[in-house]
Amino acid sequence: MSGFTENLTDLQPVRETGDGTRVYVETYGCQMNTYDSQAIGGILGRSGFAMVTGIDEAEVVLLNTCSVREHAEHKIVSRVGEIRAQRRDRGLSQPAIGICGCMAERLGEELRRSNPRVDLVVGVDNYDALPGLLADLGLGGRTATPAVVGHRPDAHYVAPPDLYPTNNSHLVTIHKGCDYNCTYCIVPATRGPQCEKDPAAILDEIRGIVDAGGREVTLLGQNVTAYHWQGELDFAALLERVAAVDELRRIRFLTGHPRDMHPHLMDTIGRLEKVCPWLHIPLQSGSDRILRRMKRLHRRDEYYTMIDHARQVIPDVTFSADFIVGFPGETEADFQDTLEVIRRVKYDQVFSFKYSERPGVPAEKLADDVPLVEKKRRLAELMAVQDEVWRETAAACVGETWRAVVEGPARRPTGALRLRTANNRKVLLKEADLETGAAVEVRITGCSNTTFLGETNPA
Ligand code: SAH
Ligand code: SF4
Ligand code: F3S
Fold it and tell me: Domain range holding 21?
């Protein structure tokens, strides 16, 4: 299976450079990184490396990193020290440690200069260089390799289809990068401009997944709803084509941008049975003043119109979103506007973050003037409001009957199964004997946090 689309894989012969060297990949950040880690597994596997699931047995540890908030980057620096110390304490040999992902792309050579315990640095568009780099590294001798970074617009990864996916749904990255310039965000810098994967390549990839037994896909990108191929094919048209793949059962997608949620797209989502009625559409703030300062390119009333339209045309639709609290200049009144949206929209899930100033982004010029204690307070209040809203939503679901697909065994209790509905609600079935992938009717009896409790319907 190829690691890159275009001709890159054909041009590069498969080299048995790995010689069974054991590699462990640890993934941070968003689903784009999860997908890339799968692609790394494919690229290295094809070149004779052995991908392992336990860090202690690895000769090479790759950390696939995220730069979105300062905390995410700090975590990686301490993780490198932690891995080295754990090996030492356990009397094991030291692995080569490589940094991949957004942090590698952002910092490049600087990362190795400032952290001599890092052996290699490879940015988001250069994982096809990993086999050669790891071979050059000379695991015994430790030769320094230069950082490999830089965007390559036409090179796209293709993850092997045979990896067992999270949530039963195979990730398929349909484009990379981002052309929006939200003032707080580092992603356009780390991932580069938006570049689309060819729809023919996307469909081939999905057919490969179906041939390998997969039945669900999640189309991935920073703004999938902005997908456009040579002015001919937009995201709605891509969904139509993907939905036409025989035997594929469910299609999810992440992330949507409010700006691109046109009525036509929502109508298409509502009409296509295979497309799941779950929209993850980050709003970031409920205040128009803050949205302007964030350059989110839409207002709160437009977001409400979008939500109302979705509710009309997409049966059983559920929503989730991201919010940032404590953006520069956010007043208590702005924050209350955010809470009002959360109360009104009634999201199933809300992901909320304290604003973190990133180097070089436009918002760096604004004073980061909301004190940390206040950011923490707002975050806690937002989560408490979401909790309250969710408890009401969840309580109203008790007694309903839903169709859900078995994802596999639950962590607890023993014998229980995890299921998921099309609109992304998790259901736990105790002591059921069903195969993974089976679709069943479940009667909802309760809810604990975000997981519903259910029983199979005798009817
Ligand atoms: N492309 C998606 C997601 C981008 S990153 C979108 O446009 O929504 C994921 C989330 O991280 C964002 O939605 C935002 O809520 C958060 N985020 C991004 N930059 C941040 C920053 N500087 N500080 C705090 N949170 C941030
Ligand atoms: Fe970042 Fe905005 Fe692009 Fe999302 S749309 S990745 S928040 S710049
Ligand atoms: Fe983080 Fe990069 Fe994703 S910055 S959120 S891993 S695109």
Answer: 8-137
